[in-house]
C-alpha cells in the first residue's frame, strides 16, 4: 500500500518477567493504516492491544520489527526528526482521572506540548489554548481551573485538547471512552469524529466495546493473546466474521434489545484466556476454540487474505 | 403476589465537607420471588447507594438514612441492629459486588472464605461444610473444585474470582441476590459466561436477583423488569419490553439513543445527551433531567412530576405523560422499530 501513513511491520514487544521468561504482549503483528482512516483495535484484556498502541507512539521500544510512519522508520529517528515525529503522533489515554496532572492548571496541561516543542509563547500560546478549549466544547474560562473541577467527560475533552495542541496527524486513542457513562461516550465519539473531519486526523482507536468500535472505525483488527486474529473493513467483520474467536466475541456482546435475545446463536467460550507467558503452541486460540483440529496445535496458522481485504489467521481458511 | 423486597421512598444523604449530598432522593421499587429486576443508571445516580442501604453497608459516620422503608419478606430491615442484620445478610440476601479483585481476602484460601459464610449461618459439621463448599464451586462452573478449594485469589482469573463471589453469595441459598455491576470489570466473553450462570441459577433455584448495571445490553439479556434511575430518583420503571420498546421518559430515550445501533448498515451519528447530571448538593426542585431535556416545559423546572401510570407495570415520572402535555414526536428508542 503506497498511501499508508503508518506501517507496522512484524512488530514484537516482549517484557521480561524474571529469569528467562518473557511475556509476549505483542507477537509479530503487521498492519498498515491509511491517511484519514480510523483503524479500530479490539481484544480482551491482556490481548496486547494497549501495548501495541503504546509501541506505535513510541512509549515502548519494540523488541523486534519496525514502525514506519510517513515512510520513515520511527525507531531510527534522531534529534530533530525524532522530535518532529513526537509532535505528529499524539495519544489520548483511557483514564481521564489519572492522565491529567492534578496540580497543573488546564491552561498548562493543554499547552504542555506547545511548550515542550517551543511552538508558541505568551499571548499566542494563551489564545491557542482558548481556541482549543472551544474546539473540544469547553469554555475559555475553564483554562484557569484544575482537573478535579471537571467531570469525566470534560476531562477527556481536556485530554483531547492537549493531544490536538501540537497539530498532530495521527492520534492513538487508548480506550478513550471506556471510563465514561454511556450518554457521555456518545458526546466524545461525536467530538472525535468531528475533529477527524476538521483537522484531517488519522486514528488508531483501541477499545473493547465492539459496538463503539464498529461505529467509529473504517477497518478493525481483532487481537488475542498478542496475535492479530482477523482484520477487515468494519462492516465485513461484523457481517461475516471468519475467525472463530471473532465470531464468539461478536456473539457475546449483549444486545440492548430484548426482542433479539434468543434469536441469535450465542457462542459462549469455555474457560479463560491462557497465560501470555506460556501461550499454547500453534494457534493461540485453540484451547478455547470450538473448531480446534489437530493441525491447530502443531502449526501456527498463516496470516492470509481469505476474502478481499479480509485477513485472517486460522486453519479453517487454508485453501 | 406479595413482593419479596419492597423499597419505599428511600432517602439517603452523605455528609461531606461541602455540605449534604442527597444521593438517593425517594426511591421506590419491589422485587417478587423469582424475579430479576435491573436498576440502570449512570455513575452518581444513586444505584449503588441504594443497594448498600438495603444491605446495611453504608458507612455509619458519614451517611444518613433520611427516610423510607425497606421491607424484606414483610419485615422492616432498615436500621436493624448490626447483629440482626448479619443474620439476614448471607443467609437470606446474598451480595455480589462489582470488583472481584478487591472483594476477596488475598491472604485466605478461597475455600475457607466460602466456608466462613456457611459456618456462620448454618450448624453443619466441619466435613460437610467442606463438601458443601466444593459443591458450590462446582455449581458456579469452576473446574477442579477440589483443587481450587485450597488456592488463593491471586491464582484465579477475574472471571473465576467473580464465580467465587457468586458461590459465596449462594452459599446459604438466599432468596435474594443483590449483584452490583457483577460483570463490569470483566471481558465480554467472560461476561457472557457469568450472565448465563446467573440466569441458569435463577431459574434452577428460583432466586430473585436485583442487578445493578449501567449496561443496557446486560439489562436486556437478564432482567424481567427495569427501573431507570437518574439523580437519586427512579424516573421510569416497567417490564423489559416496555422500557425498550415503549419508553416514556426522555432520559430513557437518551440512554437508548446513545448506544450505536449495529443492526442497520448505514452509520448514523450518535445522539448523546448533552450536558451533565445535576449537582446533588443542591438538587433542583423540579425534574432533575429538565436542564438536559429538549422537551422541557416551564412546569418541569418548577415541579417534580408524580409517577404516571402507563400500564399496570409501567410508570414514568415525566410531565409529557400528562394528558395536558403536548404530544412530542416519540423518538421511541429511535429507529429501533425497523
UniProtKB/TrEMBL annotation, chain A:
Residues 6-250 form the ABC transporter domain. PROSITE patterns: ABC_TRANSPORTER_1, ABC_TRANSPORTER_2. One of its GO terms (molecular function) is ATP hydrolysis activity. The keyword Transport applies. InterPro entries: AAA+_ATPase, ABC_transp_ATP-bind, ABC_transporter-like_ATP-bd, ABC_transporter-like_CS, Oligopep_ABC_C, P-loop_NTPase. It comes from the Bacteria. GO terms for biological process: peptide transport; transmembrane transport. Keywords: ATP-binding, Nucleotide-binding, Transport. It holds the Pfam family ABC_tran. Belongs to the ABC transporter superfamily. PANTHER family: D,D-DIPEPTIDE TRANSPORT ATP-BINDING PROTEIN DDPF-RELATED (PTHR43776:SF7), TRANSPORT ATP-BINDING PROTEIN (PTHR43776). This is ATP-binding cassette domain-containing protein. It comes from Exobacillus caeni.
UniProtKB/TrEMBL annotation, chain B:
Pfam families: ABC_tran, oligo_HPY. Residues 7-256 form the ABC transporter domain. It is a peripheral membrane protein. Its main location: membrane. It is found in: Cell membrane. The keyword Transport applies. GO terms for cellular component: plasma membrane. InterPro entries: AAA+_ATPase, ABC_Ni/Peptide_Import, ABC_transporter-like_ATP-bd, ABC_transporter-like_CS, Oligopep_ABC_C, P-loop_NTPase. Keywords: ATP-binding, Cell membrane, Membrane, Nucleotide-binding, Transport. The keyword Zinc does not apply. One of its GO terms (molecular function) is ATP binding. GO terms for biological process: peptide transport. Belongs to the ABC transporter superfamily. This is ABC transporter ATP-binding protein. It comes from Exobacillus caeni. The lineage of its organism: Bacteria, Bacillati, Bacillota, Bacilli, Bacillales.
Amino acid at each position: 500500500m503506497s498511501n499508508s501513513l503508518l506501517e507496522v511491520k512484524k512488530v514484537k514487544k516482549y517484557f521480561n518477567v524474571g529469569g528467562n521468561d518473557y511475556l509476549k504482549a505483542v507477537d509479530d503483528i503487521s498492519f498498515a493504516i491509511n491517511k484519514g482512516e480510523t483503524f479500530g483495535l479490539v481484544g480482551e484484556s491482556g490481548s496486547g492491544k494497549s501495548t501495541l498502541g503504546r509501541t506505535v507512539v513510541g512509549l515502548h521500544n519494540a523488541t523486534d520489527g519496525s514502525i514506519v510512519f510517513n515512510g520513515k522508520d520511527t525507531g531510527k529517528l534522531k534529534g530533530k526528526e525524532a522530535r518532529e515525529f513526537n509532535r505528529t503522533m499524539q495519544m489520548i489515554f483511557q483514564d481521564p482521572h489519572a492522565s491529567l496532572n492534578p496540580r497543573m492548571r488546564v491552561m498548562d496541561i493543554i499547552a504542555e506540548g506547545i511548550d515542550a516543542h517551543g511552538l508558541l509563547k505568551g499571548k499566542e500560546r494563551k489564545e491557542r489554548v482558548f481556541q482549543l478549549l472551544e474546539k473540544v466544547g469547553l469554555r475559555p474560562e475553564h483554562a484557569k481551573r484544575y482537573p478535579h473541577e471537571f467531570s469525566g467527560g470534560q476531562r477527556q475533552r481536556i485530554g483531547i485538547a492537549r493531544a490536538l495542541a501540537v497539530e498532530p496527524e495521527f492520534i492513538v486513542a487508548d480506550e478513550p471512552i471506556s471510563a465514561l457513562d454511556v450518554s457521555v461516550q456518545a458526546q466524545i465519539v461525536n467530538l472525535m469524529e468531528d475533529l477527524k473531519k476538521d483537522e484531517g486526523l488519522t486514528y488508531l482507536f483501541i477499545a473493547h466495546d465492539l459496538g463503539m468500535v464498529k461505529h467509529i472505525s473504517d477497518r478493525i483488527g481483532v487481537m488475542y493473546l498478542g496475535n492479530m486474529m482477523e482484520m477487515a473493513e468494519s462492516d465485513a467483520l461484523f457481517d461475516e466474521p471468519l475467525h472463530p474467536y471473532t465470531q464468539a466475541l461478536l456473539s457475546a456482546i449483549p444486545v440492548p434489545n430484548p426482542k433479539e435475545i434468543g434469536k441469535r446463536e450465542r457462542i459462549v467460550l469455555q474457560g479463560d484466556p491462557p497465560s501470555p507467558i506460556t501461550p499454547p503452541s500453534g494457534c493461540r486460540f485453540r484451547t478455547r476454540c470450538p473448531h480446534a483440529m489437530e493441525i491447530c496445535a502443531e502449526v501456527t496458522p498463516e496470516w492470509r487474505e481469505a476474502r478481499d481485504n479480509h485477513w485472517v489467521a486460522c486453519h479453517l481458511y487454508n485453501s | 403476589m406479595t413482593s419479596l423486597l419492597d423499597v419505599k421512598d428511600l432517602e439517603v444523604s452523605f455528609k461531606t465537607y461541602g455540605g449534604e449530598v442527597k444521593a438517593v432522593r425517594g426511591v421506590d421499587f419491589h422485587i417478587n420471588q423469582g424475579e430479576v429486576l435491573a436498576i440502570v443508571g449512570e455513575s452518581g445516580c444513586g444505584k449503588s447507594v441504594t443497594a448498600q442501604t438495603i444491605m446495611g453497608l453504608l458507612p455509619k459516620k458519614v451517611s444518613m438514612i433520611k427516610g423510607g422503608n425497606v421491607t424484606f419478606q414483610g419485615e422492616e430491615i432498615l436500621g436493624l441492629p448490626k447483629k440482626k442484620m448479619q443474620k439476614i445478610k448471607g443467609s437470606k440476601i446474598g451480595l455480589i459486588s462489582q470488583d472481584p479483585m478487591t472483594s476477596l481476602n488475598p491472604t485466605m484460601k478461597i475455600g475457607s472464605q466460602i466456608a466462613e459464610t456457611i459456618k456462620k449461618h448454618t450448624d453443619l459439621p466441619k466435613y460437610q461444610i467442606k463438601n458443601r463448599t466444593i459443591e458450590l464451586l462446582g455449581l458456579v462452573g469452576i473446574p477442579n473444585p477440589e483443587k481450587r478449594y485450597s488456592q488463593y485469589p491471586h491464582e484465579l482469573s477475574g472471571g473465576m474470582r467473580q464465580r467465587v463471589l457468586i458461590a459465596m453469595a449462594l452459599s446459604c441459598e438466599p432468596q435474594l441476590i443483590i449483584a452490583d455491576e457483577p460483570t463490569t470489570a470483566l471481558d465480554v466473553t467472560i461476561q457472557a459466561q457469568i450472565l448465563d450462570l446467573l440466569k441458569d441459577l435463577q431459574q434452577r433455584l428460583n432466586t430473585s436477583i436485583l442487578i445493578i448495571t449501567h449496561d443496557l445490553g446486560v439489562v436486556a439479556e437478564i432482567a424481567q423488569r427495569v427501573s431507570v434511575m437518574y439523580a437519586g430518583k427512579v424516573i421510569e420503571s416497567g417490564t423489559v419490553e416496555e422500557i425498550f420498546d415503549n419508553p416514556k421518559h426522555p432520559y430513557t430515550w437518551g440512554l437508548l439513543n446513545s448506544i450505536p445501533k449495529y443492526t442497520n448498515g448505514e452509520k448514523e451519528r450518535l445522539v448523546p445527551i448533552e450536558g451533565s447530571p445535576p449537582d446533588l448538593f443542591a438538587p433542583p426542585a423540579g425534574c432533575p433531567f429538565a436542564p438536559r431535556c429538549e422537551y422541557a416545559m416551564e412546569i418541569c423546572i418548577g415541579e417534580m412530576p408524580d409517577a404516571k401510570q402507563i400500564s399496570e407495570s409501567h410508570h414514568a415520572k415525566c410531565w409529557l405523560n400528562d394528558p395536558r402535555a403536548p404530544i412530542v414526536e416519540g423518538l421511541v428508542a429511535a429507529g429501533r422499530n425497523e
